[in-house]
Every structure is written in C-alpha cells, then in structure tokens.
C-alpha cells in the first residue's frame, strides 16, 4: 500500500540550514535511505522536490565558517542552495595578484618595479574576480566577506590604475617646465614617480588601507585563525609600504638624504615579506575551502574561532534560557 503522507524529515528541526556545499559526515541525504518514502502516485513536482531535499546537505557551523569565512547566519530563501559558493573565486583573484607582487617587492630573482609588470592581473584577477565574489557574497547574505572582497577588489583596481600611465596619477605631479619638456600631450610622465608630492600622497592611501585591515582584524576574531593571520600580516604590510613611500618622498626632496632612501628599500622588502605571509595563509584557506566544497575524505584545519567568541544573539539566548 502506498504511503501518501507528506514527507517526514527525521532530522532535528534545530539542525543547521540545508546548504549546497558538502561536508564530511553532516547529515548526508541519500535516495536509498529511510528518511522518507516516495509513493507511486506522487506528482512529478513533488518527487522532484523530494530529490532536491535529499540532495541537500546539512552543514555544521564550523564548516559554514570555513566555506564562507563568516559565522553562520540565517537568511531568507534558498539562495545558498541555488548558487555556488562565491568565496573561492574571490580568494583566487586576491592570491594571484598578491603572491607575485610580494615576490616583486622582495626583489626575488631580479624582480622589481613595485609589481608594474602585473598591472593587468590587478585588473582582471584582483579587481574583476574579487568584485564578482563580493557580489556573490551579497546575494547569498554574507555581509562580512561581501565587504572584505569588495574593499580589496576596489583596492586592486585602484593600485592597477595608479600604475597605468593614462590615468596620469603620478604625471600630474610633474609641474616644472624642464620636466614637462617633450611630454606634451603624453599623460603619465614617469618623472612623477620621483616627486615628493606623489610618494607622500600615495602613502596615505596605504595607511588607511591598514586602518581598514585593523577593523577587519577585529571582526575576523569570529571567523578563524588563518583569516585573522591574513589581516594581521596585511596591517604590517600596509604600514611598511606607507613608511617606504614617505621615506622615498624625503629622499626625492633632498638627494643627499641617503638614509631615507635606504630605509625605503628595507621597508619595501619588509612589506613584501608581510604580504608573502598573507599569501601563504590565503593559499592555505583556499585549499581548505576547495577540499570542503568537494566533500574530500580529509580536510585541513583553519582554526575555527566562531565557537570561542560567541555572538551577541547567542549570548542573549543563553540569558533568556536562564
């Protein structure tokens, strides 16, 4: 006899929300298990809905934080089951821009030029992929990664644009007739890179990027250790690079100030070392997310912090329960 009763889910009503991504051992659905029955008289729509439910996977708060780099939150609708996880695409855009730049800043194998050779990568990997990832995080309701990826997507577009001569970011600082000779109608006079005004001004942009990273650092205390390390090292990187540009401004203002030029060189290398640490932490978390997304039989730890520092809503629930 066919059982025409509605589908009864044996899972606890308080389980984490069903997600599209995979986890190891968290409520795997299977069409052959006993969690539901499908009668012969079920409509096609009802059967399809049950298959979709069986193909969804319950996710622990720890896995949610690893996949989305944000504490688990409740959002309306099923967008997380409809769309793919946007976090990895934003991360790979960030990493394929930052990792080569860190090597350039440290001068490995003769690299240099503050990463000017990778200007296109800053636009198409750092800018485009991170903005797309940011929009994806916004769609699925993850505010923190949405803001982080959007901020760094805009950073890479800004950094890449500064290096492009047609933006005239540094050429605008060339004001003396001798320096402007032969450059009429040609934006992006390279002599602008050697002006105190440009270097001192660009340093402020890097300084306040460090301030943004400090705010992100505090917020990341509710995510994981690796994400926290990324922002911690970025604060050091932006601080060193801002100091390098201020010292370059001093050196270009007074050619006899050789100490400022040497300090600038050391600070650039230190900034590259900090960003290299950032990159390695980023590759680790990217690998962890990809393994979890594909339901690999093993995983690598990221040091979940979401269960250590409880959210205000969780603390309120505890108070209400007392």
TrEMBL record:
Q: Which residues cross the membrane?
A: 89-108, 120-139, 146-167, 198-218, 225-248, 268-291
Q: State where composition is biased (Basic and acidic residues).
A: 1-22
Which InterPro entries has this protein been placed in?
AceTr, Gpr1/Fun34/SatP-like
Q: Where in the cell is it found?
A: Membrane
Protein keywords: Membrane, Transmembrane, Transmembrane helix
UniProt feature coiled coil, ranges:
none
Membrane topology recorded in Swiss-Prot or TrEMBL = Multi-pass membrane protein
A single Gene Ontology MF term assigned here is:
acetate transmembrane transporter activity
Q: Name one GO cellular component term.
A: plasma membrane
| Region spans: Disordered | 1-26
Instruction: Describe the family membership recorded for this protein in Swiss-Prot or TrEMBL.
Output: Belongs to the acetate uptake transporter (AceTr) (TC 2.A.96) family.
Q: What name does UniProt use for this protein?
A: GPR1/FUN34/YaaH-class plasma membrane protein
Source organism of the structure: Letharia lupina
Q: What is the lineage of its organism?
A: Eukaryota, Fungi, Dikarya, Ascomycota, Pezizomycotina
């Amino acid at each position: 006899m066919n059982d025409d009763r509605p589908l009864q889910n044996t899972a606890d009503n308080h389980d984490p929300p069903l997600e599209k991504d995979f986890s190891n051992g968290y409520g795997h659905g299977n069409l052959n298990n006993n969690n539901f029955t499908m009668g012969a008289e079920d409509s096609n729509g009802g059967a399809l809905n049950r298959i979709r439910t069986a193909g969804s996977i319950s996710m622990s708060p720890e896995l949610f934080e690893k996949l989305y780099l944000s504490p688990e939150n409740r959002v309306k609708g099923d967008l997380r089951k409809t769309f793919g996880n946007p976090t990895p695409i934003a991360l790979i855009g960030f990493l394929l821009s930052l990792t080569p730049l860190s090597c350039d800043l440290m001068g490995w194998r003769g690299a240099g030029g503050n990463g000017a050779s990778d200007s296109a990568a800053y636009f198409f990997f750092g800018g485009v992929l991170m903005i797309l990832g940011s929009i994806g995080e916004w769609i699925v309701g993850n505010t923190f990664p949405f803001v982080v990826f959007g901020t760094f997507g805009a950073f890479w577009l800004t950094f890449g644009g500064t290096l492009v001569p047609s933006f005239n970011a540094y050429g605008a600082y060339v004001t003396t007739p001798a320096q402007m000779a032969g450059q009429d109608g040609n934006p992006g006079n390279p002599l602008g890179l050697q002006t105190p005004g440009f270097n001192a001004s660009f340093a402020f942009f890097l300084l306040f990027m460090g301030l943004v990273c400090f705010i992100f650092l505090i917020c990341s205390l509710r995510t994981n250790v690796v994400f926290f390390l990324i922002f911690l090292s970025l604060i050091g990187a932006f601080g060193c690079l801002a100091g390098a540009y201020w010292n370059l401004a001093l050196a270009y203002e007074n050619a006899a100030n050789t100490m400022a030029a040497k300090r600038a060189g050391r600070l650039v290398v230190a900034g590259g070392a900090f960003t290299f640490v950032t990159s390695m932490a980023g590759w680790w978390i990217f690998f962890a997310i990809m393994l979890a997304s594909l339901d690999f039989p093993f995983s690598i730890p990221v040091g979940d912090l979401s269960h250590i520092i409880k959210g205000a809503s969780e603390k309120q629930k505890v108070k209400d329960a007392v």
